[in-house]
Design a protein that fits this description.
492 residues, mainly beta, Immunoglobulin-like, Beta-galactosidase, Chain A, domain 5, 4 domains, 4 helices, globular, Glycosyl hydrolase-related protein, metal ion binding, carbohydrate binding, Glyco_hydro_b, metal-binding
């Protein structure tokens, strides 16, 4: 993987053949990682004691984060009938629904439910046959082809454009957007692959227009409105999901791009004044001006200001799992989805008007983003946690009944400071059997933190400066103290 961190590969400016090589090498790295992950989670799930029940299908769900998470879990399963109930490890019913399978065949289902998971641990859920004492639970939100509404938000779409017509925060009595949002705007972009000397992409060529807006899922877990739109020879599908008791909106995107010398942005006009704009960086954040320039960011960007009528602090965090360029012009926050110059075209060479060239970002790609409107700042909204949950999702293992020495639910590491994130737990490189725990502060403020490792009967207590990274060695010998190390695991 590190061999493919070359700057032209990262930036999208390499030869097309270089990307074919990178794709194969990334595939090998992902296959190695997937095997390691599969071995790791099953080494635990096989040891979970699950009592024998011929009509039960157990599912062990792993939380990769050191905080309690409530996240949507989806997995392909078979054998779900009309008289099936999902329960937790205490046999309490859990709301669930079936959604469209990835296979187009009878008897195939995709299970969807909100899993409430312990910090850096696992929990066992069970699909069981319904009985008189055990019935399905949960009720859906209000939803039709154009509106999704839960206790906190009302989301409405425009049938003609496919854009968000309004997003109303009922609790704050505030309209989140100042105009049509999630607009798919196409920009003319005749620059070379590096976009030399180009700071702004603002020559609007047009916008995608809706061909269909419809509700495609409706159940006690979530309701989903799908917006299908087109521009030229390209197609865009956005699936907007709202949950009964989650205060964010998840969006799954599929774009089939066929345009040349153009860029695609998703645009959100934010309805606040006197705003500040915060971008995630590696192990920290940075604030930037809203001058319309293209700016790099990692998994989230936040736009927070004051509401016009009440002067209350309000903002929107835009989270995503695959795109790393944003722009803010006026009050419009935009996520750059793709651009399609010629592969490795470098000024001053001018392409032949009738020449045949290969263009970047052609064809189908998929990614996800989430909208997290919030009162107060992004720090209070839990933006860093929600973005991490979007980018690093739970792992679910379909198990069977067997004896075992592990409980049905457990937690291995927990951070008790919301702004202190455990980013790595690993074996020490020296083969000693000691544990290495890497931790960092996310909100730019000094903090006293406590990280518990209950399975190891250890607690790490430390002071963190703003955005500070710390690494700790937890000795296998319980008589030896926890010690801080540098990033190379040497004592400090």
């Amino acid at each position: 993987m590190l061999f493919n961190q070359f700057h032209d590969i990262l930036a999208g400016t390499s030869l097309e053949s270089a990307y074919e090589d990178a794709r194969y090498l990334f595939g090998e790295a992902m296959a190695i990682a997937d095997r390691a992950l599969n071995d790791a989670v099953q080494s635990i799930s096989w040891r979970v004691g699950i009592r024998q029940d011929e009509g039960m299908k157990p599912i062990v769900v792993f939380n990769p984060h050191a905080w309690a998470s409530k996240v949507n879990v989806e997995l392909e399963v078979g054998g779900i009938g009309p008289k099936t109930v999902l329960t937790d490890e205490n046999d309490a019913p859990v709301p669930f629904q079936t959604v469209q399978s990835q296979a187009t065949s009878g008897g195939r289902y995709r299970l969807s439910f909100l899993a409430e998971l312990p910090p850096l641990g696992y929990r066992t859920y069970k699909l069981v046959a319904v009985s008189e004492s055990l019935k399905a639970v949960g009720a859906p939100i209000a939803a039709n082809d154009l509106v999704l509404e839960n206790g906190r938000f009302r989301l409405e779409f425009d049938r003609d454009t496919g854009a968000i017509k309004s997003l109303r925060d009922k609790q704050a009595e505030h309209d989140v957007f100042a105009g049509p949002a999630a607009r798919a705007v196409v920009i003319d972009d005749k620059s070379d692959t590096w976009s030399h000397d180009v700071l702004h992409f603002n020559r609007v060529a047009g916008e995608f227009k809706a061909v269909k807006v419809s509700r495609i899922e409706h159940g006690p877990v979530k309701s989903v409105i799908r917006v299908v739109s087109r521009y030229g020879d390209s197609k865009l599908v956005q699936d907007f999901a709202m949950y009964p008791d989650r205060e964010l909106i998840d969006v799954s995107v599929t774009v089939d791009w066929r345009e040349k010398f153009k860029m695609l942005k998703l645009v959100f006009p934010i309805n606040v004044i006197f705003s500040k704009h915060t971008y995630e960086t590696p192990y920290g954040t940075i604030q930037r001006e809203h001058n319309g320039e293209e700016e790099p960011g990692q998994s989230w960007v936040d736009y927070t200001g004051l509401t016009r009528l009440t002067n209350k602090i309000y903002g929107v965090s835009l989270l995503n799992d695959a795109k790393y360029s944003y722009s803010i012009s006026g009050k419009e926050l935009a996520l750059t989805v793709l651009r399609s110059p010629i592969y490795a075209h470098h000024d001053p060479l001018v392409p032949e008007p009738d020449g045949e060239y290969s263009f970047i970002d052609q064809g189908i790609q998929r990614f996800n983003y989430s909208l997290l409107p919030h009162e107060g700042g992004w720090e209070q909204a839990g933006t860093a946690h929600r973005a991490a949950e979007l980018n690093c999702r739970p792992t679910a293992v379909i198990e069977t009944y067997h004896e075992g020495d592990l409980p049905l639910a457990d937690s291995y590491v927990a951070s008790f400071a919301d702004n202190v994130v455990v980013s790595a737990v690993k074996a020490a490189e020296d083969g000693s059997g000691d544990l290495i725990v890497r931790v960092y502060e996310t909100e730019g403020r000094a903090t006293q933190a406590e990280i518990a490792l209950p399975r190891f009967a250890r607690t790490i207590r430390a002071a963190f400066g703003p955005s500070e990274i710390k690494t700790f060695r937890v000795p296998r010998d319980a008589a030896r103290p926890v010690a801080e190390t540098d990033l190379l695991e040497r004592g400090v």
